[in-house]
Specification:
Layout: H1 2-13, H2 19-60, E1 64-67, H3 77-87, E2 91-106, E3 109-118, H4 120-123, E4 133-134, E5 151-155, H5 156-161, E6 169-174, E7 178-180, E8 183-185, E9 188-198, H6 203-208, E10 209-213, H7 214-221, E11 228-233, H8 239-249, E12 253-256, H9 257-260, H10 262-300, H11 302-310, H12 315-346, H13 348-359, H14 366-369, H15 380-406, H16 410-415
Parallel strand pairs: 3-10, 5-9
Antiparallel strand pairs: 1-11, 1-12, 2-3, 2-6, 2-11, 4-9, 5-10, 6-9, 7-8
């Protein structure tokens, strides 16, 4: 193998009269580098987005939501919560909820909303709602700041659509029938004071959700019990086994935070796979360049191949020389791409700021993407897959020219030299 490696390295360097081949070799290395760099950066950013979104969802949503089968209201709430808390030490907190659709109205502005009735004290042990609430001046809510009776908290985009702020009065209309002197009237309208604005960094929460005290929710909906119970676990990623335990031991159904957003996460996963396939084509094009380079080298080195065969080198040895030469090109490109990709991924926000400064525009608007910077997560498994893919494609690209070189007849190779 030392002999084959030596010859492959010599051929790779080339001679002055084969500068064109050397240039093509450099272009091939650059092509592999660009492909690997792009793959690492894009995969790292997509993984970063995935992780950041999971953290946001886990913070804003209950790890588990427990409800009666067929959607029947749950009564004896404290007893149910006690049964759940006794079931597993992994359950750290529980809070009842009432869910309803409502129409919100302020002056000339009207919009639909998803109303969530919560127990303010219990909810603080279940989700990060309190940390996402702000009063005037941006102060984070503390204890006692959660919605009280006749109060409502709006998602910040929902508040913007209503031109509402803390202290504004909102008309909340639900489908609860109202008794009047003239009989039953469909729809129930109650005026509530905006006590806070929520910025959960999730589009559905910020665009659609309004939060009220659970007693206010009962008044608005006329429901005697609750629709479900939110649970917080010691670890969000054990939600599935805990859900199975609840369904086995108690007469309730349990939905995990992942199940509530399963379609979204599956879409993210498919996007990542599609992006990987698209970007692999960059490496594939570079691999074709390697094939072209090796074919030209084989044509230029026909005489050398003939001499090597005459001196006793086997077809297998010639095959190995050109496979090694192609792998040297591919591995060089992969290594350079690996270093550049990791460096670029780690410094992606600085690069984005630099480009934004040159273009005079904001490339990553935090009000749109809900993150202060581009989230990045460099995962060893992703790096491994990218590296292996580049090496495998490079190896495949060497097979045909290496096979052609090994099949050369030494007599034919030397006949016209």
């Amino acid at each position: 193998m030392r002999f084959e490696s030596f010859v492959a390295a010599r051929y790779l360097r080339g001679k002055r009269r084969t500068r064109f081949i050397s240039l093509i070799t450099i272009i091939s290395i650059a092509g592999v580098s660009v492909g690997v760099t792009a793959l690492i950066v894009v995969m790292s950013v997509m993984t970063g987005f995935d992780n950041a979104l999971r953290e946001t969802i886990i913070g804003n949503r209950a790890h588990l939501t427990v409800a009666n089968p067929m959607g029947r209201p749950m009564e004896n709430v404290e007893e149910v919560i006690g049964d759940l808390m006794d079931l597993s030490p992994e359950i750290l907190g529980a809070g009842p909820i009432i869910q309803a659709e409502a129409l919100l109205k302020r002056n000339k502005y009207t919009t639909g909303a998803f109303l969530l009735g919560i127990d303010p004290e219990k909810e603080q042990g279940v989700t990060d709602l309190a940390q996402n609430l702000t009063r005037n001046g941006g102060r984070t809510f503390g204890e006692g700041d959660m919605p009280g009776d006749k109060e409502i908290v709006l998602g910040f985009r929902l508040a913007h659509r209503l031109a509402a702020r803390v202290g504004s009065e909102i008309a909340v209309i639900t489908d609860k029938p109202t008794v009047t002197p003239f009989g039953m009237r469909p729809g129930n309208q109650v005026f509530l004071k905006v006590s806070g604005i929520s910025q959960a960094k999730m589009s559905d929460f910020d665009n659609l959700y309004a939060f009220v005290n659970i007693e206010t929710a009962r008044m608005l909906t006329g429901r005697p019990g609750v629709d479900g119970i939110h649970l917080r676990l010691s670890d969000a990623f054990i939600a599935e086994p805990v859900a199975r335990l609840i369904e086995e031991r108690l007469p309730y159904r349990a939905e995990t935070w992942y199940q509530s957003q399963e379609a979204f996460f599956e879409a993210l996963k498919q996007e990542k796979v599609v992006m990987f396939i698209i970007l692999v084509f960059i490496v594939l094009v570079a691999a074709f360049n390697i094939t072209s380079t090796l074919i030209m080298i084989v044509m230029e080195k026909r005489r050398d191949i003939g001499i090597l065969r005459t001196l006793g080198s086997s077809s297998r040895s010639i095959l190995t020389i050109f496979i090694l030469e192609g792998l040297m090109i591919g591995l060089s490109g992969t290594l350079i791409g690996l270093i550049l990709g990791v460096l670029l991924a780690y410094n992606i926000n600085a690069v984005a700021e630099f480009i934004a400064g040159l273009l005079g525009m904001d490339l990553f608007n935090s009000t749109i993407y809900y993150f202060d910077g581009i989230p990045v997560a460099i995962v060893a498994w992703d790096i491994t897959w990218i590296t292996l893919s580049a090496i495998v494609l490079t190896f495949i690209s060497t097979l045909y020219p290496a096979w052609s070189a090994s099949r050369l007849n030494p007599v034919d190779a030397l006949r016209y030299e």
